[in-house]
Fold:
Amino acid sequence: MSTAAFADKVAIVTGGASGIGEAVCRRLSAGGAKVVVADFNGEAAQALADTLGNAIAVQLDVADAEAVRRMVERSVEAFGALHLAVNNAGIGGPSHPTADYPLEDWHRVIGVNLHSVMYSMKYEIPAMLAAGGGAIVNMASILGSVGWSGSIPYVAAKHALLGMTKTAAMEYAPKGIRINAVGPGFIDTPLLSNLDPQVYASLVGLHPIGRLGTADEVAALTCFLLSGDAGFITGSYHLVDGGYTTR
Structure:
């Protein structure tokens, strides 16, 4: 992928201020894109946008449909169009068995991890159609294809996200919009590195490759799928999991 792979493109990244989202923003910007760093943490989003240069920050709760509509509107107002989007924002939620899962937490996890992706596509797609086409990556997880005890809303949201991705991809492929999903395994972040060493080692042991992934490795796959090099890829789910799902 060339350093100008995204020249003249406008991209939205939700959950863009840290972790995988930040790595995606940096790669898109390095490739020439104008980037909208959208995040619940407005200060962090603004700090990253300032670092990138040709970028703006949008603070929002992605579980609020009207806020998502305004995000897309603001992006088009700022840069004139929308061509690319990474719907990455998500939360884990507390751990409880299914029968004990608090409904308030269920609704919040589903709202942020599932409803927000529908809201995002609902408003991103018309903007991309107006621009002549585009590409979307919805951030799933290995838990889009396997279960995880104690995390029923997260697992449900990520499984459902894959169905939404396939359906939307089928609908809009003839109109020039490609839509795919990426499924990261456990990614090495400061939060995980601060775990008890035995817990951290147990997570590493779930990945046959013998380590956790990095945010930049996920960003590399994500940006490939957004690029013209992936022009014949749509409606699919791409794992970056160190072999986790081979177990």
Helices lie at 19-30, 42-52, 65-79, 103-131, 152-172, 190-193, 197-205, 215-226.
